């Protein structure tokens, strides 16, 4: 890929990522079908663009905050078709002192949900629902990558109990799965607009403590990962985890908001105090 094409793709990724953070949680009474179609069309167009142009992009992690001698770490995974750039910048605004924020980029690979087009994706998805049909082989491969990132932080002197795993949408699904199947205690888990993949495997698949704090957040008019999927995930988690909180954001679609980020910061302060 030419340098100018690489730069254009990186610019597109940052624009897409940042656009997800601009929506606020003002009440919305009616979401018109036309508006919903426009939003989904833009998502599909962005995913298609990334699948065609982004296949040769680097998947190295983006880091911000205290990168040397940090006392805590937040590893946060982006959603399908996105990148770590926008989330790393956004989370940098709510990070705690002496915290490193690591936002890895998913590999470029075919996604069944998108007719096999190649795009940034943590694991293959057939459909966005609670059927538990996620491709387990690719999910386990992604989980291994995240576990390695946690191990790297521990190797640099950060205790596992000072490390938080988090993510948005598909990245949140990976965060939940990776944290619950990790064998060392963690400080907390953040799942934004997400679901628990292969949920039928739990609680048998769980390898971690029942007491890890879990922060879940979901917009009540999310047209991509439906609000009731988030609610159902919370109920499943509550059946075998002791410290699950579920936050609803009225009028919020498949994106973040200022209030949500303030709540994320409060959660970080609580589980890393």
Automatic annotation (TrEMBL):
Query: What EC number(s) are associated with this protein in UniProt?
Result: 3.1.2.22
What family does the database annotate?
Belongs to the AB hydrolase superfamily. AB hydrolase 2 family.
Q: Which InterPro entries match?
A: AB_hydrolase_fold, LYPA1-2/EST-like, PLipase/COase/thioEstase
What are its GO biological-process terms?
fatty acid metabolic process
MF-aspect GO terms: carboxylic ester hydrolase activity; palmitoyl-(protein) hydrolase activity
Protein name stated in the entry: palmitoyl-protein hydrolase
| Record flagged with keyword Ligase | no
> Is the Chaperone keyword given for this protein?
no
The reaction(s) this protein catalyses: S-hexadecanoyl-L-cysteinyl-[protein] + H2O = L-cysteinyl-[protein] + hexadecanoate + H(+); 1-hexadecanoyl-sn-glycero-3-phosphocholine + H2O = sn-glycerol 3-phosphocholine + hexadecanoate + H(+)
Q: Which residues cross the membrane?
A: none
User: What are the UniProt keywords, alphabetically?
Assistant: Cytoplasm, Fatty acid metabolism, Hydrolase, Lipid metabolism
GO cellular component entries: cytoplasm
Q: Which residue range or ranges hold the Phospholipase/carboxylesterase/thioesterase domain?
A: 69-271
> What SUPFAM superfamilies is this protein classified in?
alpha/beta-Hydrolases
Q: What is its subcellular localisation? A: Cytoplasm
Which domain of life does the UniProt lineage start with?
A: Eukaryota
């Amino acid at each position: 890929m030419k340098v100018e094409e690489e730069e254009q793709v990186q610019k597109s990724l940052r624009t897409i990522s940042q656009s997800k953070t601009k929506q606020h949680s003002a009440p919305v009474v009616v979401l018109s079908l036309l508006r919903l179609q426009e939003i989904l069309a833009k998502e599909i167009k962005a995913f298609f663009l990334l699948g065609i142009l982004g296949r040769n992009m680097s998947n190295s992690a983006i880091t911000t905050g205290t990168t040397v001698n940090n006392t805590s770490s937040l590893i946060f995974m982006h959603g399908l078709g996105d990148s770590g750039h926008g989330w790393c910048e956004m989370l940098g605004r709510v990070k705690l002192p002496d915290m490193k924020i690591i936002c890895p980029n998913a590999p470029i690979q075919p996604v069944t949900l998108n007719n096999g087009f190649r795009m940034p994706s943590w694991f293959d998805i057939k459909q966005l629902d609670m059927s538990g049909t996620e491709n387990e082989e690719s999910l386990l491969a992604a989980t291994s990558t995240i576990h390695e990132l946690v191990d790297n932080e521990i190797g640099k002197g950060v205790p596992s109990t000072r490390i938080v795993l988090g993510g948005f949408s598909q990245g949140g699904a990976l965060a939940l799965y990776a944290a619950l199947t990790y064998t060392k205690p963690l400080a907390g888990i953040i799942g934004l607009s997400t679901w628990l993949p292969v949920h039928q495997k739990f609680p048998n698949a769980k390898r971690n403590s029942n007491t890890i704090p879990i922060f879940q957040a979901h917009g009540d008019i999310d047209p991509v990962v439906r609000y009731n999927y988030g609610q159902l995930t919370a109920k499943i988690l509550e059946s075998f985890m002791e410290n699950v909180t579920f936050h609803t954001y009225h009028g919020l679609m498949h994106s973040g908001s200022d209030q949500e980020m303030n709540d994320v910061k409060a959660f970080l302060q609580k589980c890393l105090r």
